[in-house]
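Severity: low
Component: inverse-folding endpoint
Summary: output formatting inconsistent between runs
Steps to reproduce: submit the following structure tokens with default settings.
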């Protein structure tokens, strides 16, 4: 017994290090890929859902311009994906692995067209492309938005397929006519890698054309929009069993027997990777954008608040929440604009400010508004500026302004899961304890922070491993909590008044 203790003491110093060593000794069986608006990430996992130490590769997008997210080149993204996998398998240890499964996490709401040969007819239009906003009023005039929201889980908005397809048909009729099939980015990637353009339940569920109750396209709405049924991709189950095309199976011998086991929306994957897999935990994520989401088993809610959306993780689970178009992207835009290059100094300045002490009100809609009002014409604004305003005060006001929008989403989610704990994730929060404390104070509830900095990669891996029976349930996997931020209720009271001021300004300038 004493010998065993000595061996442990002389090896890894912490339990986390010991787990890391043990997981690295188990063979990798799954490649998990996350394709986000900021870049591509890939890593290997063993059959228990542990990430293989040293296997993660992160490839950032070359453009840091937030405005560039609206329209992207899908072929450049595919090339970046291939380069990322090349880099992962450039390590001889990983190249000698025999990977059995592939999982993909990809951002929701993208749309592109392909012709009969699978070549793109359009650029990739993301949720950040707001050009279809002008068609939202037309949709609201022609259809019962409440009924469509209940069926599809989506409001009429430029980020979803209905408005985008009507816009393309109106503004680019020749392109529309030569398009054989409409796809999202994930389907285009799987078409090129696996020769399979079918869409997963998770990805289809966030298009605005999917019936959440029967897990199929909402054919009634598709027909009413005069969209060809043949142009809609086939919806597949989570496990497709598609194998890599010969070109890529030869390029990556470790993957020559692998099957595609899960394609999931990044929001759902982020929840899973962050340990928020049931009604007991709500995930609050701040990346380029922001969202609050909860996962539950069974059917979608019979009544869905207008502020919220409802999509699917898979056929047995729904995910309900609200989304902000501005999160870390707005923070980065402000710091770049004002040349705030010293992040440590900025964080120190932000932490010393008292709540709402700057006299500013920010409407954080630089990229438009999704939740809670779903305004097609919302624009950002900073109100109350004087010549005395300091750059750090503007940033602090923006962080608080984003937190107020989260508070409105939280109120709506409380009707579904009123006692849920809030777990914060996202790289935009990792370097700012001040923002985490602001969120806790604004919400008036404890905020847990922790888990993997790349939760979407892990979430997609866990869902795939569950689908092939390697783990019993995604709910069985625990996630460490690094810190808990407790709310200061005196500050909460200050923020409640500031939130009311922001809402009053919103209603005057934007609200219907």
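Observed output (run 2 of 3):
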């Amino acid at each position: 017994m004493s010998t065993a203790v000595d061996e442990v003491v002389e090896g890894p110093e912490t339990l986390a290090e010991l787990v890391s060593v043990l997981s690295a000794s188990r063979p990798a069986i799954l490649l998990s890929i996350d394709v986000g608006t900021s870049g591509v990430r890939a890593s290997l996992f063993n059959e228990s859902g542990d990430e293989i130490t040293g296997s993660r590769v992160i490839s950032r997008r070359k453009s840091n311009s937030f405005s560039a997210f609206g329209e992207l080149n899908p072929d450049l993204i595919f090339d970046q994906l291939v380069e990322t996998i090349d880099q992962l398998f450039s390590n001889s240890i990983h190249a000698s692995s025999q990977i059995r499964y592939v999982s993909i996490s990809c951002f929701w709401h993208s749309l592109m067209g392909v012709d009969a040969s699978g070549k793109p007819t359009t650029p990739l239009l993301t949720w950040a492309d707001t050009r279809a906003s002008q068609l939202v009023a037309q949709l609201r005039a022609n259809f019962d938005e409440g009924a469509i929201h209940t069926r599809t889980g989506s409001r009429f908005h430029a980020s979803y397929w209905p408005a985008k397809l009507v816009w393309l048909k109106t503004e680019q009729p020749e392109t529309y006519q030569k398009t054989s099939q409409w796809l999202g980015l994930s389907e285009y990637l799987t078409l090129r890698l696996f020769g399979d353009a079918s869409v997963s339940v998770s990805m289809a569920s966030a298009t605005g054309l999917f019936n959440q109750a029967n897990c199929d396209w909402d054919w009634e709405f598709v027909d009413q929009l005069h969209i060809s049924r043949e142009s809609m991709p086939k919806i597949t189950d989570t496990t497709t069993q598609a194998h890599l095309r010969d070109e890529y199976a030869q390029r990556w011998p470790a993957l020559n027997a692998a099957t595609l086991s899960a394609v999931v929306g990044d929001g759902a994957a982020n929840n899973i990777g962050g340990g928020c897999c049931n009604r007991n935990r709500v995930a609050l994520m701040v990346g380029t954008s922001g969202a609050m989401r909860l996962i539950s088993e069974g059917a979608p809610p019979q009544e869905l608040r207008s502020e919220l959306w409802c999509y699917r993780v898979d056929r047995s689970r729904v995910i309900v929440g609200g989304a902000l178009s501005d999160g870390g992207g707005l923070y980065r835009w402000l710091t770049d604009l004002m040349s705030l290059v010293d992040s440590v100094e900025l964080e120190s300045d932000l932490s010393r400010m008292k709540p709402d002490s700057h006299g500013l009100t920010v409407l954080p809609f630089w990229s438009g508004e999704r939740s809670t009002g779903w305004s097609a014409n919302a624009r950002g604004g900073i109100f109350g500026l004087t010549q005395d305003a300091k750059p750090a005060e503007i940033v602090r006001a923006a962080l608080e302004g984003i937190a107020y929008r989260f508070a409105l989403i939280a109120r709506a989610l409380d009707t579904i899961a009123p006692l849920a704990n809030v777990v914060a994730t996202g790289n935009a929060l990792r370097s700012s304890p001040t923002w985490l404390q602001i969120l806790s104070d604004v919400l008036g509830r404890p905020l847990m922070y922790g888990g993997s900095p790349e939760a979407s990669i892990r979430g997609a891996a866990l869902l795939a491993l569950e689908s092939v029976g390697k783990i019993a349930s995604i709910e069985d996997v625990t996630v460490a909590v690094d810190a808990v931020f407790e709310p200061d209720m005196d500050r909460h009271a200050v923020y409640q008044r500031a939130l009311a001021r922001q809402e009053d300004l919103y209603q005057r300038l934007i609200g219907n």
